[in-house]
Amino acid sequence: MLSDVEQGYSCCFEDKFIPHGESLLENFARLKSHSQAKPKSLRLFTTGEVAQLTGLGQSTLRTLDLEGKGPRPKRLANNHRAYTLKQINEIRDYFSNQTHAENLCQRPHRKADGLLQILTIVSFPDYQMPMMTCAHLAQYFALKGYRVLALDLNPAGTLSAIFNTPSTSRPLNLEQASICKTYFDGVDLVSYQTGRQYQTGRKEGLEALLQKVGHNYDLVLIDTAGLLNPLCYEVLEMATGLVFSLAPKTASISALMQYLLMMGTSFHEIFHDEKSSSKFKPAMERPKGFLRYLIAGSNNGSLNEEQAQIAALVRHLFQGDVLHPVFMCDAVFAPHFAGAKTLYDLEAGEAPRRAYKAARHAIDDVGGALVDLVRAVAADKTHTIREKQ
Known about the structure:
eight-stranded mixed sheet; 11 strands; Rossmann fold; 2 domains; globular; alpha/beta; three-stranded antiparallel sheet
């Protein structure tokens, strides 16, 4: 084995960055697959939870089961019914096909000529809660019946860690070779390992991918970091919604400030300069979308004095562009998040009841606000569809 000096010191740093990074990426994924021997699965849902998710009455669900219609739920030790998320969606499909129940329980599938909405979540590194935002939102939309395609373009790889398990890493088909089914019914994934290939030019553009497979989805969620690169411009060019997930900390606000200033200058040069030779569409050819800031952090489920001051400043400066609900969680959830579990993954008893209820209420409120925005965009007839029909 060569000594440190014999190993050499005359290399160009950049010559080793990519090969070393790729080696770590490939082997780290292999290491994770060995450590995750047990396939990940989603918990079951009680009749009360199914009623809340679908808008159906519990008596309707019981009658459906007793009459042998729809999916057959599992019976627990206490004889209570329990449903998988796939069965919940089968119930939605059952009622969607009933002519007398048009408004009873509908899947929110977009129409063939509807806009494929692309919601981009931008988070900044080193803050756990903002980096968990996209995963929670993907699951929230899926629980509401949306067909979601999640793209992990964040070097932190949070989405991939949560969704991409060995049992779910098989491609859907040859046309969708980069898309994988996940354990969470309604969410398909483009992992970070695949997503980064778009950035390095090894794959055709993201827009080309969505033109091929977009008809299978109601919503695309993209998780990206506050970084400036060509892929970032393509992602923001396609987006119909942009959400900045911010920790209420000075460093996070500073990172946002730098990002906005640099991105604003670059966007103006790329999209608004008539003499620009950019491949991107001019501003007038791109549909309008919404931009929102989300306060996301961890401090016993509420803002402390310093966090409250920062949040108040953000609301004062950006006013209506800041989502009213905040995604605050008790610090007790940090180990679960570090273990690639979301609030929706947790079973009863895995977290203190009061803290769990408050955290679920917080993310559900955030998801509900974004559902309203997505519906408003869908109802706007001035938008144009991006995919090939």
